[in-house]
Design brief:
There is one protein chain. With 552 residues, this protein is of the alpha/beta class. It folds into 3 domains: 100 residues, Hemocyanin, N-terminal domain, CATH 1.20.1370.30; 161 residues, Rossmann fold, CATH 3.40.50.10380; 184 residues, Rossmann fold, CATH 3.40.50. It contains 25 helices and 14 strands. A 7-stranded mixed beta sheet has the order 8-7-6-9-10-11-14, with helices on both faces. A 5-stranded parallel beta sheet has the order 1-3-2-4-5, sandwiched between helices. The protein has a two-stranded antiparallel sheet with strand order 12-13. Strand 2, helix 11 and strand 3 form a beta-alpha-beta unit. The longest helix has 21 residues. 48% of the residues are buried. The protein binds nicotinamide-adenine-dinucleotide. The site of nicotinamide-adenine-dinucleotide (NAD) has 27 residues, from helix 15, helix 16 and strand 7.
């Protein structure tokens, strides 16, 4: 797909300079070189000095940094994307550590909450409950037929913020930007979609700037019919696409994933992406301790999408190592809002049942830690400060190097801080978190906590699926991604206590994951596309680099 060819194929009038300056996919702004200014009728429409892409990146970054708060920085960054996509992705890729918390969590959460108030330009597609019977027509309004990755939300459970209705659009937009920045999935083949099925958020329903339908959420058959029509329309209009389900409420997330995963190549990042990142963290931790996965016992606080997703993948990895599935499940235990998940309980949702083992109920997390003696404690409850000093101390009394993963986001929701985990365990905890924490100094040593960020996994899987044109996405691809990510963590990172590679290496890591995923897709025959002789070169050739292409 060459921009130059696209451009030359356009009608003559599209080559007019003003049109180019207002097309973010083709605009170079002050970086249009002299020859293009003449050939494309740009002369005079730009100030005379020609700037480099690097100049533009530095200027844009300085402007963003001058914005007074994170939300303003989000707006300023989005404005760059609205003007000049190449510049936006170059900026994001070169300054990922600084800008990731702006374009994604935590700032994207605030941006969604205030979406209607900061709204400037639409991005992506809105499919609403009013579109029943014409969803396919709506999808056909998207200007590009060659769509390879769709991220779709119904806005019901945006991050830890709950039902934000149509204002959830910030999430598919942000996630797809990370597909491009972290793995190089071409932005032209990405499509963010929000299914506006109404909202039960009364504050939004009463907000004059709310952009969505002002009606309660569709439920039951009406909801299912809309989803069915949507998936069918996606298959017709974009037959090559990967569909990522994002931030659906608990009751729909598991159901939709299992209903559609064999029909369209699809996955749920909250369930499966999180699982791969967490499993990678566990595998890295075992490289530090020299222990075996088969000898671990995991205790989860929180039995929702993230928790049971992680346990399911740990079980899959154990089964791949020859452990019987029942035995593997016995290694995973859960405490939810009503206590230890045990066989006698009659209030358990289907996704918890495989982990409802025979055991007496326990009153508190501390009781569960004392009774079960886990080697790993994984927090995915959204409940801050639940890994108390007593809990961490008890764990550290039972194990020389306990794993403590406080994965709840944002930072204010973490089950404990990095400082607390290291301090209360006498520096023995192997710690990872969902939100970033600064390195911790303790007794003359520096501990670098790893951030189990899903962006280590989903962009690479996406690139691998796009490159191999996979027809379905099995759990196995997530196990492979987890193993690859753990392998990419260097001994130096592990020595500092960090379970993941630095974010600056994300493109390399994503490429490795994409290649491993694509190789497995071909091995399994899960694609009709012929296998290239050189898979690495093939995947690499699909990678988008944010650089200006010559138009003349
Ligand atoms: P969810 O709503 O599906 O599940 C939350 C679970 O926590 C439920 O089982 C609920 O019963 C349980 N819970 C609530 N209060 C509790 C309490 N007081 N004690 C014990 N359990 C309690 O949400 P989810 O998608 O599983 O996400 C959970 C958390 O994990 C969120 O904070 C989210 O930000 C975080 N998360 C982190 C990552 C990551 O770091 N990579 C990825 C996904 C989710």
């Amino acid at each position: 797909m060459s921009l130059r060819r696209d451009l030359l194929e356009q009608d003559q009038h599209l080559r007019l300079g003003t049109e180019l300056l207002h097309d973010p996919k083709r605009n170079k702004g002050t970086a249009f070189p002299e020859a293009e200014r003449d050939a494309l009728r740009l002369r005079g429409l730009l100030p005379p000095h020609v700037f480099s892409l690097q100049d533009q990146v530095d200027r844009a970054l300085a402007n963003i940094r001058r914005s007074p708060d994170p939300l303003q920085r989000y707006v300023a960054t989005a404005a760059v994307q609205d003007r000049n996509e190449t510049l936006y992705f170059r900026l994001l890729l070169d300054h990922l550590r600084e800008l990731m918390p702006i374009v994604y969590t935590p700032t994207v959460g605030e941006a969604c909450q205030k979406f209607g108030h900061i709204f400037r330009r639409p991005r992506g597609l809105f499919v609403s409950a009013e579109d029943r019977g014409r969803v396919e027509q709506v999808l056909r309004n998207w200007p590009n037929r060659d769509v390879r990755v769709i991220v779709v939300t119904d806005g019901e459970r945006i991050l830890g913020l709950g039902d934000l209705g149509a204002h959830g659009m910030g999430i598919p937009v942000g996630k797809l930007n990370l597909y491009t920045a972290c793995a190089g999935v071409d932005p032209r083949v990405c499509l963010p979609i929000t299914l506006d099925v109404g909202t039960n958020n009364s504050a939004l329903l009463g907000d004059r700037f709310y952009v969505g339908l002002r009606q309660p959420r569709l439920v039951g058959q009406d909801y299912d019919d809309l989803i069915e029509e949507f998936v069918t329309a996606v298959q017709r209009v974009f037959p090559q696409t990967l569909l990522q389900w994002e931030d659906f409420g608990n009751r729909n997330a598991f159901r939709l994933l299992s209903r559609y995963r064999d029909r369209v190549p699809s996955f749920n990042d909250d369930i499966q992406g999180t699982a791969a990142v967490a499993l990678a963290g566990v595998l890295s931790a075992l490289r530090i301790t020299g222990e075996r996965l088969e000898d671990q016992r995991f205790l989860f606080l929180g039995a929702g999408e993230a928790g049971t997703g992680i346990a399911d993948l740990i079980v899959a990895e154990l089964v791949a190592r020859g452990v019987a599935v029942e035995q593997a499940r016995q290694q995973c235990w859960f405490v939810d809002s009503r206590g230890l998940v045990v066989a006698d309980r009659d209030d358990l949702a289907a996704h918890k049942l495989p982990y409802a083992h025979r055991h007496a109920p326990t009153a508190t997390l501390l009781d569960a830690v004392q009774a079960l003696r886990p080697s790993a404690l994984i927090g995915v409850s959204g409940q801050p400060q639940t890994f108390t000093r007593e809990v961490v101390t008890a764990l550290a009394e039972q194990h020389a190097r306990p794993m403590i993963f406080a994965l709840s986001n944002p930072t204010s929701k973490a089950e404990c801080t990095a400082q607390q985990a290291y301090e209360w365990s006498g520096g023995r905890a192997i710690f990872a978190s969902g939100s970033p924490f600064e390195p911790v100094e303790l007794d003359g040593r520096t501990f670098v906590p790893g951030q189990g960020n899903n962006c280590y996994v989903f962009p690479g899987i996406g690139l691998g699926v796009v490159a191999s044109q996979a027809r379905c996405i099995g759990d196995e691809l997530f196990t492979i991604a987890a193993r690859t990510l753990a392998d990419e963590t260097s001994q130096q990172d592990l020595d500092s206590g960090c379970l993941y590679p630095p974010l600056e290496q994300i493109r390399r890591v994503s490429l490795r994951i994409a290649v491993a995923v694509a190789e497995r897709v071909w091995e399994n025959g899960a694609t009709a596309a012929p296998r290239p002789d050189d898979v690495v070169a093939h995947v690499r050739s699909q990678v988008y680099e944010p650089d200006y292409e010559s138009y003349v």
